[in-house]
Design a protein that fits this description.
310 residues; alpha/beta; Rossmann fold; Helicase, Ruva Protein, domain 3; 3-stranded mixed beta sheet; 12 helices
Length: 310
């Protein structure tokens, strides 16, 4: 969880004074806590969030609140989710007695396990160990939010925006891009933190596709999981593994049973999979080169012959 410390303070009056002299706080590295010592980056993240005075903002990992108070000055409400009780106390103390106090709502606990309220924009210095589950928790959240501006480990951010054929293109890339538009906003060097983390960071903007694509995401995820296990091998090689064929056969029989249909006596899962790959033209394709339209076509072809991935 990247924590913010702004030497100049983040707001006016009591909130500004409370933001100073926090050298006695011991940051928990097991939670990914580091101090972002460059106030220009804090301000840039807030600016790139394009906040409106009617917005409710979800902030994840507010720390001592330097970014929080900057946002409280611009929006209707900030809902701050924080796991560390010490940081919760510091932030509440910081806004106590100021005009920000009534605009701040605290959620104490693990954001992955927390039921999130309505929000317009999410802003977060993300604990790197929860990056992937957080992305999909946000993208599957309803009602839709306008955008999220999030700081991640540099390589994770690069995976989010990677395109077919890129070295870092992976299941994370295509699953995220199916549900959202993702843009890389800026790099943040590790020397901007105290103590410096072992990795560089980047800030990305994620805008959910609204309406979402007309597809069962769990089934889509099941398909891409199989395809990207060996992303450099052909789909034919990947789908011919014993484990994959057994899984497909089991799902096929379950869906037939639920639909009240009988499994054809000549059913052969290996032949059926080979037929789909052949007719779609993807038999010799590799997952690392395939785009969303390719996977959409492949999923529809499998579904058409009764093969599902959930």
């Amino acid at each position: 969880m990247v924590k913010v410390k702004d030497r100049k303070g983040g707001a006016k009056g009591g909130a500004e004074k409370a933001g100073k002299n926090r050298q006695n706080i011991q940051f928990n590295h097991a939670l990914g806590q580091h101090i972002l010592k460059n106030p220009l980056i804090v301000q840039a993240i807030v600016d790139k969030s394009a906040l409106r005075n009617t917005d409710t903002v979800l902030e994840i990992g507010p720390g001592t609140g330097n970014m929080t108070v900057k946002m409280l000055d611009k929006v209707k409400k900030v809902v701050a989710c924080e796991l560390d009780p010490r940081m919760v106390a510091e932030l509440q103390k910081r806004v106590q007695g100021t005009h920000f106090q009534s605009k701040l709502q605290m959620l104490v606990g693990d954001v992955i396990k927390t039921e999130l309220p309505f929000f317009d924009v999410c802003v977060a210095n993300v604990p790197y160990q929860i990056s992937s589950p957080l992305v999909f928790k946000l993208l599957l959240h309803r009602p839709f939010f306008r955008c999220a501006v999030l700081m991640f480990q540099r390589e994770f951010a690069q995976r989010l925006v990677a395109q077919p054929g890129d070295k870092l293109y992976c299941r994370l890339s295509i699953n995220t891009q199916l549900l959202a538009r993702v843009d890389h906003l800026m790099k943040v060097g590790k020397n901007n933190f105290r103590p410096p983390p072992k990795v560089e960071s980047s800030v990305v903007r994620i805008e959910p596709r609204n309406p979402p694509p007309p597809i069962n995401f769990k089934e889509w995820d099941g398909l891409t999981r199989i395809c990207f296990v060996r992303k450099n091998k052909t789909l034919s090689a990947g789908f011919n593994s014993t484990g994959v064929l057994l899984l497909i056969e089991k799902n096929y029989k379950v869906h037939k049973s639920v639909a009240g249909e009988v499994v054809p006596p000549d059913f052969n899962v290996k032949n059926l999979v080979a037929e789909v790959l052949e007719t779609t033209g993807f038999k010799e394709k590799r997952a690392r080169t395939m785009d969303i339209d390719d996977f959409m076509k492949l999923l529809h072809a499998f579904n058409a012959v009764g093969i599902h991935f959930v």
